[in-house]
Amino acid sequence: DRVFNLGALGAENCLFIDEANVPQDVKNLPQKEYFVILFHPETLTNIDVAEQMINLLHAIENYIGKYRFVFLGTNADTNSGIIRKMVKDFVDNNENAIYYENLHTDAYHYLVKNSICLIGNSSSGIIEAPSLGVYTINIGDRQKGRVRGNSVIDVVCKKKYLNDAIKNVINVYQKIDPINPYFKKNSAHEYYKQIKKILSNLYYTKNKVKEFFDLK
Q: Which strands, in side-by-side order, build the sheet including 135-139?
């Protein structure tokens, strides 16, 4: 009774893009002619991140002659430096590959919204991309266990499966009708109303001993 399912704020916030915060070179990218790549290390699976990147980059090579691939900087987790170096080397050797270390939130959402697909293992592929009307190719187990919508395609990080997933998205991306289980209408306003209710109710503001409920 102290848990309120009001939707993920990110699933709603991404719909409000301030284009004044979007760099012109991002706006100049031809819409629906590029993929966005955002890949982070899996820190708990002991998987070889270099091997993952080799498979991903080899799969991309099959399409880079026709489509652009926009890479974004990875996070600061262990082995992120391996990803960053391999991506930068790939971009240096492919004129249809672009790299941004960081983008403003509005720029990132604009970039994803106008892409064919988001490829990687970021939570934004699960929570935000469906709201933006874009498919996600979700790689590996980093987001394992999270609820996902019908626009999220889960693949193991092997060249063949990645290649097949990219090919499949190219064939169907224009017909997308995403369902985002994280989106609730007027989510931010519902948060505001619920917080006011909590602050005005002694039951919610008084500390209680936590109980564990075993769901059979």
A: 97-100, 68-72, 34-38, 117-120, 135-139, 152-155
Give pLDDT tens digits for 131-173.
999 999 999 999 999 999 999 999 999 999 999 999 999 998 8
d(CA 87, CA 84): 5
The dihedrals phi and psi of 33, each to the nearest 5 degrees, come to -130, 15
pTM of the predicted structure, to 2 decimals: 0.90
- Residues linked to residue 154 through DSSP beta bridges, in sequence order: 138
Cα–Cα distance for residue pair 186/132, rounded to 1 Å:
16
Residue 98 near residue 92 (C-beta atoms within 8 A): no
Q: Write the CB contacts of 137 (distance below 8 Å, at least 6 apart in sequence).
A: 117, 118, 119, 120, 125, 153, 155, 162, 165, 166, 169
Tell me how far apart the terminal alpha carbons of the chain are, to the nearest angstrom.
18
69 beta partners: 35, 97
C-beta neighbour count of 166 within 10 angstroms: 22
